[in-house]
Amino acid sequence: MPITAPDGRSFRGNPAACIDHTLLKAETTERQIQQLCEEAVEYGFAAVCVPPCHVRFSAATLYGTEVAVATVAGFPLGYVETASKQHEAARAVNAGAREIDMVINQGWAATGDFARVEEEIRAVVRAVPGTCVKVIIECCNFGREAKSRLVEAAVAAGARYVKTSTGFAASGATVEDVRLLAAVADGRVGVKAAGGIRSLEDCQAMLVAGATRIGSSSGVAIVEQWLRTEGLS
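The line above is the sequence of Deoxyribose-phosphate aldolase; the predicted structure tokens follow.
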């Protein structure tokens, strides 16, 4: 059954086109990336999200398809220098990435220096003109006010998405966080929910809460579960 919000909203369709099929483990192999890309084409996922060292291979594998290659910058802790994030992002785009998921400097955010966070996001956006930049907030480390301010910083800096989590922190996406980010964003940027989304119910709940993209390493299982519920497999 689809998840339905108190206001009546629900998500009933195939979620595949909303999913970034993700594999960011340190021990990821090229063979695993090959499989990831093949699955992304087969199931119609929006993108694959892969480690920077696998971007060129992924782009070559997916050449001629509609699946985008996404990768990360400043991942997973966000405390590298701004110039390093710019360099990572630019090199990834040169290698074939079309989307960059960057981690904010959480120390700056923790001390309320949101102007500096905004400045860094803007610097990364300018380093890869025309590229979709998603800003990873790592929501579990911040309160409501800080998360709201970080969404505003991402909007002002020209990012296209805010993202809940790296998937490497204490916890991942929650419905409450997605609802908050979506409310603050108010359509100005998309919201990517990531971290711990492993089932169709998880995915639907995030989409109903306001997510416009889902990051998950369980994309195949999620879509297969949807196909079974629809009697299509």
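Note on the example: The CA atoms of residues 17 and 45 lie 5 Å apart. The longest strand covers residues 68-73.
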